[in-house]
Write a structure and sequence with these properties.
It contains 16 helices and 33 strands. By secondary structure, the protein is of the alpha+beta class. The strands form 8 sheets. Strands 11, 12, 13, 18, 21, 22, 29, 32 and 33 form a 9-stranded mixed beta sheet that branches. Residues 4-164 form the Hydantoinase/oxoprolinase N-terminal domain. Pfam families: Hydant_A_N, Hydantoinase_A.
Length: 627
């Protein structure tokens, strides 16, 4: 049986197919207007690769489909969600239980002040109905209820939801989805619960429509009997029905970080800066001692949330970033050409110069290898665009302009990596840089050199590392409860374990086969962890404030194999004056920079002064200065 893992990004959709003794990757261009189309294109490409007569024949041999994406992230970034309504406790309509500055991050971007209604602490049914009708008459499409102190007792929130369901039932044309904030986030912080519930409601419609459409297409049109598992921000997957929209925010990029954590644990790299550069954004995250670094509070697209989030920093920079002359220098982005019309070299009508055009002009990309040879890149179009928008205004040649574009791109990404290292308190010289994404390996040694890192890791599946992270993921649910004593922690742990069992049973996974991992946090910052029972974790903390349960159900996982070909198996050449080798030919050998290593749908750039050692599975470690 086959497992298919799909990661939908802003520019490219990646696939990784494994099982039955085969492992191969696929890339197609994302279809932003309907990402289910690129989802299905991955499956169609897999069908062609394995030689199945039809998509139904392929799916008959597919055990798992796991899907991660940037769908929810894009809705937040583009501010393209629905019109929301919010009911809060009277007196908090303007501050949303926090400071005016923090409230302003959602007032306007996600919800307008006029669509927020307060109700009194002793509101009767008539007051609640009047508040709901007032929002309904303003044309809102989703209502959130977030009342002060609802973490301790959410009965009032649930009662309001029941009233809305009764007043506007599903069969009524004006039915309105309503959700209590206390069921989205189990944290006592009223403002964070409010913000998270608004984020969830804002991105939910786009995600739900996409996921259900994809799964129903497979079931109804192709008679697939399986279920699409959705990637979560925690590095696990779950059934659609057990997924909230908030669970999926940045899940695609973060699967690359979780894959980096697995590799760091295997390779023994204690401090890792994981750099993911795609077509639209560059992201940097951190891995320490084989674990993804998280924070108890952070920001999602400028919105502060005091809940556990992986450390992830990003800038608007990627292969599609538009380059232009700015005074006597070059600027990049934040606008991007995306997949359509794309960079000028795509030949689809794009006239702006981009990072990809610069890479092509410098010889870093093979014109006939893009998308595994399905598209030939036009170097003349890249040259013309760079000359017109950068070279001529600055009075320099197109090649020099291309080099400046690349240098600026490396500088911007290096600054982001340096900021992340500083936040961690790390000396970049003590870190390993893990580079992945469609463009990450082209940035790797250039960025590492700029920040002073001496070790770089690149991977055979690095161009689809988020899909690889999905391919080694399990069903994973995280539950947490704020507590104020050891007895409350024990009671809370019992309730969390019951909830985990119910959720796993509801998804069709035997709960007795799940692994339960407990974490208890104390008010002074102490932490205790244990598998199986909460008691061992509790014993390490004097004053417990939070109990967290991670329930994991193991799924079949991808295993790496040796690369076909091996060291010395031909594949030598030159491009842009740089010695070039075929990826399959360098497995098990060492390459000295400057050099390019071509892997069909990806290219590694090894800078001058770097030495690249490639292992038999096609993964590589680059070192600088003989270290």
């Amino acid at each position: 049986m086959l497992n298919i893992d799909i990661d939908t990004g802003g520019t490219m959709t990646d696939g990784l197919v494994s099982g039955d003794g085969t492992v191969f990757s696929i890339k197609v261009e994302t279809t932003p207007h309907d990402v289910t189309l690129s989802f299905l294109e991955i499956l169609e490409a897999a069908r062609g690769h394995v030689g199945a007569a039809s998509l139904r024949d392929l799916l008959d041999d597919v055990a798992l489909i796991r899907w991660s994406s940037t769908i929810t992230s894009n809705v937040l970034a583009q501010k393209s969600g629905p019109k929301l309504g919010l009911i809060v406790s009277a007196g908090h309509e303007d501050d949303l239980y926090t400071s005016p500055e923090e409230a302003a991050t959602v007032l306007g971007p996600l919800i307008t002040r006029e669509n927020i209604t307060g109700i009194s602490a002793d509101a009767d049914d008539d007051e609640v109905r009047t508040a709901v009708k007032g929002l309904f008459d303003k044309g809102i499409r989703r209502i959130n209820i977030s009342l002060e102190g609802a973490f301790e007792d959410n009965s009032r929130e649930r009662k309001i939801v029941s009233m809305i369901d009764a007043q506007y039932p599903d069969h009524f044309l004006g039915s309105i989805p309503a959700l209590p904030a206390s069921e989205i986030l189990l944290r006592p912080d009223d403002s964070t619960r409010t913000f998270v519930s608004l984020i969830n409601a804002y991105v939910h419609p786009s995600l739900a429509t996409t996921l259900y459409r994809a799964e129903e297409t497979l079931k109804q049109e192709h008679s697939w009997r399986g279920n699409v598992l959705v990637g979560h921000i925690n590095g696990g997957v779950a059934r659609i029905g057990k997924t909230t929209a908030f669970d999926t925010i940045e899940s695609g990029p973060l699967f690359g970080t979780h894959a980096s954590a697995a590799e760091a644990a295997r390779l023994g790299d204690a401090k890792v800066l994981a750099i993911d550069v795609g077509g639209t954004t560059a992201k940097v995250s951190a891995v320490e001692n084989g674990r993804v670094v998280d924070r108890d509070e952070g920001h999602l697209f400028g919105i502060p949330v005091r809940t556990n989030l992986p450390l992830l920093r990003s800038i608007a920079l990627g292969g599609g970033s538009v380059a232009r002359a700015s005074g006597r220098t070059v600027s990049l982005g934040p606008d991007s050409m995306g997949a359509a019309p794309g960079p000028a070299c795509y030949g689809l009508g794009g006239r702006n110069a981009t990072t990809t055009d610069a890479f092509l002009l410098l010889g870093y990309l093979a014109p006939d290898a893009f998308l595994d040879g399905r598209r030939t890149l036009d170097a003349d179009a890249a040259r013309d665009a760079i000359a017109r928008t950068v070279g001529d205004p600055l009075g320099i040649s197109p090649v020099e302009a291309a080099q400046r574009i690349v240098d600026i791109a490396f500088d911007m990404t290096a600054a982001l990596a340096r900021e992340t290292a500083t936040e961690m308190g790390w000396d970049p010289a003590d870190t390993a840089v893990y580079a992945f994404g469609g463009n990450g390996p082209l940035f790797a040694t250039g960025v590492a050199e700029r920040i002073g890192a001496r070790t770089v890791r690149m991977f055979g599946f690095g161009n689809v590392l988020s899909a690889y992270g999905s391919a080694i993921s399990d069903v994973l649910h995280v539950y947490e409860s704020a507590v104020n004593s050891a007895d409350a922690a024990r009671t809370g742990a019992e309730l969390l374990a019951d909830e985990a069992r119910r959720d796993l049973e509801g998804e069709g996974f035997p709960p007795d086969e799940a692994v339960l991992h407990w974490e208890v946090r104390g008010t002074g910052g102490s932490r205790g962890t244990a598998d199986g029972s909460v008691e061992a974790a509790l014993s390490a903390v004097d004053d417990p404030s939070l109990v967290r349960l991670t329930a994991r159900f193991p799924l079949p996982s991808l295993e790496k194999a040796a690369v076909t070909g091996g060291a010395g198996a031909g594949g030598r050449g030159e491009r842009g004056g740089i010695p070039t080798r075929d990826w399959a030919s360098v497995a098990g050998s060492t390459v000295t920079g400057p050099a390019l290593v071509d892997g069909g749908s990806f290219t590694w750039l090894v800078g001058p002064g770097w030495s690249l050692a490639v292992d038999p599975t096609g993964d590589a470690m680059a070192t600088r200065g003989g270290n």
